[in-house]
Design brief:
Length: 743
């Protein structure tokens, strides 16, 4: 019969002991009180790794003693008895993390519980990465710690990319790995993997060296450097300072006879490569830190990339300014940032990128609200994909009354105001088409923040030179802030830049290219326009991430743009040279592409709502601007399709019967008026929208425009009798279908 003898340990040890020690008193008398061993202390918690040796001191250990860890079933542990005062056991492979184990001593038919301990079981313990790990690409580096195995896998994570660093070996105190080619200078997260288990080891800064490569000076060159892959130079890569463009030689060396006007240099990313990423920012540019006449070396690292197929998320007009209620940056984080980080980090086909088309910030609030470009950058640090950006009119310094001078903070924090890159087989060109005048601006004084919509001549000269290096068959995607074109009230196309001459200057640069797509923002609406004079140019003017400058969340509990489009972005799916796109409303299913309105209800709201009447009484007479829909007939339905493209059609049937549909250009979207115009002018906040809104769902490409199906027997979605809602009288039993069709 086994004797149950338990020692209650009263000592808590928070640090991992190498040995579990009892009293060391050689003169201590050992009393035979029925225990197998005495004076054993087991800490109440331990951090261990499987295979780790744990020493236990006490009195009375005997050869043949064995330790088992008990948590339900006994888990035998290899045991060695060194003497009557010392025993060692090994943490078995089956030990489970965060489990309370009884440490049981077995001797023949007897056993004794020495104590209980909660064990934190890790792959490795006492890991010390240090602050910096220095080395060369392809060279060895060491991580200190215990518990590593030669069969372990080590992964490095930087800028949204995760890649393996081959393990060369491990011993009792370290793990040796090879620095992989796609590692980059900068912060790095380390993860250890063993089978199905992973352990985050922490972070350290990689300090990688070119191994002593020095680019020789060249007469007249003030900027020089190497473009390399893991320290090996890459030939025929374009490098620019914003004025000049040069090409690397066979060694990957380049030289620029630069005036350093822009105080930076950048690499034009070649196809098949990528650049490192730091907190969502692509590292394709470097600042000049020396005076214009002093030679400085600026090196650029490239990474191999398989991105012929990729996803490009195109967003614009974030207008972060530390204002509104809820705060704009809170709405931005809870909506746009959360959606992109959760939806596209792993689910999107191919590698994911983002284009920011400007007005990232809001110049008028830089200083008063202490929210400028650095704060905006912090708001997207959760992205684990690159965000490439262009400049908007609100990204200028409002204290500076000149275009180039006002761009200074943007160049400092975001990089060049115009540049180009090849991602897969698409050539992207990012341009600046706002000429910031800012009349009256000076240090400490915010100017008028006025501007012209045009491309300056130096930028156009650079663009023409850059395009000489691009094959004419390559699809071109141009990103800039202000649109080239707009729609007139009747649906005609009008000039949105300063003049037609400004349009001719920019679009003539693309002569000979068959496929040129301009992506623009600025307007907070969705428009898609074929250039009326340049058959090779198609413009997609994209609605704003901020909707109506973040106001409609406060007034209407939604985020809607001025044309009624929900705030959102566009998704471009690229397969080789094939581009497909679709508008995506933030927070809504991608199938949701239009909204319908019961115009009987809309007109009733205009005529009876207290807030609307208050707004009209205050002089904000929307009705005099043809916004009360008084000319709309009975039983009409408005359909706002959010990203309409020329040549597309909308068809509506009721119970299988086609209804007549016509496009309306002059009407404002009811949802925007209800969510912004009326409550803001009437100074009343809505907690909910007063309309019954039927949201229709389609698959495929989104459309824009307000379409009208009216006076055609379509009964109201809801009828009123004696001022009381009567759902039974509505058209809920009718089967209505709306179809969007490409030509």
């Amino acid at each position: 019969m086994k004797k149950l003898i338990t020692l209650i340990a009263g000592l808590l040890l928070v640090a991992l002991p190498v040995g579990l020690a009892g009293c060391d008193d050689s003169d201590k008398e050992i009393y035979n009180d029925g225990r197998l061993v005495t004076d054993v202390v087991i800490p109440t918690s331990m951090t261990v790794y499987r295979g780790m040796e744990v020493s236990v001191s006490g009195y009375g250990f005997a050869q043949g003693d064995a330790i088992a860890l008990r948590a339900g079933e006994d888990l035998p542990a290899a045991t060695t008895v060194a003497s009557e005062k010392l025993l060692t056991f090994v943490i078995p492979d089956g030990a489970a993390d965060q489990t309370v184990y009884k440490v049981v001593l077995n001797r023949a038919q007897d056993y004794q519980v020495l104590g209980s301990s909660r064990m934190t079981v890790q792959l490795a313990i006492d890991v010390d990465l240090g602050k910096t790990i220095s080395g060369n690409w392809g060279g060895d580096a060491v991580i200190r710690g215990r518990g590593f195995m030669a069969t372990d896998k080590l992964f490095l994570e930087q800028g949204g990319g995760k890649f393996e660093a081959p393990v060369k070996g491990a011993d009792d105190s370290s793990l040796t790995f090879t620095i992989p080619q796609n590692a980059a200078d900068g912060d790095c997260e380390f993860t250890l993997q063993r089978g199905a288990e992973e352990q985050a080891l922490g972070s350290a800064k990689l300090n990688l060296s070119l191994g002593g490569v020095t680019v020789p000076d060249k007469e007249g060159a003030t900027i020089k450097g190497i473009v390399h892959l893991a320290g090996q130079g890459i030939a025929d890569v374009l490098v620019s300072d914003g004025d000049l463009i040069t090409k690397t030689d066979a060694n990957g060396f380049y030289w620029l006879n630069s005036e350093k006007r822009n105080e930076l240099a950048f690499v034009i990313l070649p196809a098949g490569y990528d650049v490192p990423t730091v907190k969502a920012m692509p590292q394709f540019w470097q600042p000049c830190t020396l005076d214009a006449n002093t030679v400085e070396q600026l090196d650029f690292q490239l990474l191999r990339a398989d991105n012929d197929s990729h996803t490009m998320l195109v967003a614009t007009d974030m207008h972060l300014a530390n204002r509104n209620s809820p705060k704009d940056y809170v709405q931005f984080a809870d909506g746009f940032v959360k959606e992109l980080t959760s939806a596209y980090n792993s689910a999107a086909p191919g590698k994911v990128y983002c284009l920011n088309l400007g007005d990232f910030s809001w110049d008028g609030y830089w200083y008063d609200n202490k929210w400028a470009l650095p704060e905006c950058k912090q708001s997207v640090e959760d992205f684990n994909f690159q965000m490439w950006s262009v400049m908007g009119n609100h990204d200028n310094d409002p204290y500076v009354a000149s275009d180039f001078g006002a761009e200074g903070p943007y160049r400092q924090h975001m990089g060049p105001v115009y540049y180009a890159m090849n991602i897969g087989r698409i050539h992207y060109i990012m341009l600046d088409n706002t000429e910031y005048l800012n009349t009256g601006g000076s240090q400490g004084t915010v100017g008028s923040r006025n501007y012209n919509r045009r491309f300056d001549d130096r930028q156009l000269a650079w663009l023409k030179e850059e395009l000489t290096h691009v094959d004419k068959s390559t699809p071109i995607v141009v990103g800039c802030h202000c649109p080239l074109y707009s729609y007139s009230g009747s649906g005609g196309v009008s000039v949105a830049l300063q003049t037609q001459a400004d349009i001719d200057k920019i679009l003539s640069c693309f002569a000979g290219f068959s496929n040129v797509t301009f992506l623009t923002g600025h307007t907070h609406v969705n428009r898609n326009i074929q250039s009326p004079t340049y058959a090779n140019v198609y413009e997609q003017n994209i609605a704003a991430v901020c909707g109506t400058w973040w106001w409609t969340q406060q007034y209407g509990n939604n985020n809607v743009c001025t044309d009624g489009s929900p705030a959102g972005y566009k998704i471009f799916t690229v397969d080789g040279t094939d581009l497909k796109w679709q508008y995506k409303a933030t927070g809504l299913p991608i199938e949701k592409q239009f909204i319908t309105y019961d115009m009987n209800e809309v007109k009733e709201y205009w005529a009876t709502d207290a807030t609307a009447l208050k707004a009209f009484a205050a002089g904000n007479d929307l009705r005099n601007r043809d916004k009360d829909y008084s000319t709309v007939g009975e039983n009409a339905v408005y359909i706002n399709v959010w990203a309409y493209e020329p040549g597309w059609t909308v068809s509506v049937t009721e119970n299988g019967t086609p209804l007549a549909v016509k496009q309306v250009w002059s009407k404002k979207d009811p949802l925007h008026s209800i969510s912004y115009d009326i409550p803001r002018r009437g100074q009343q906040r809505h907690t909910h929208l007063p309309l019954d809104l039927l949201h229709a769902y389609v698959r495929g490409y989104g459309l824009f425009g307000i379409f009208h199906a009216g006076d055609l027997g379509y009964r109201p979605l809801r009828q009123r009798q004696h001022g009381v809602d009567d759902p039974a009288q509505g058209a809920h039993d009718r089967r209505d279908q709306i179809t969007l069709k490409k030509p």
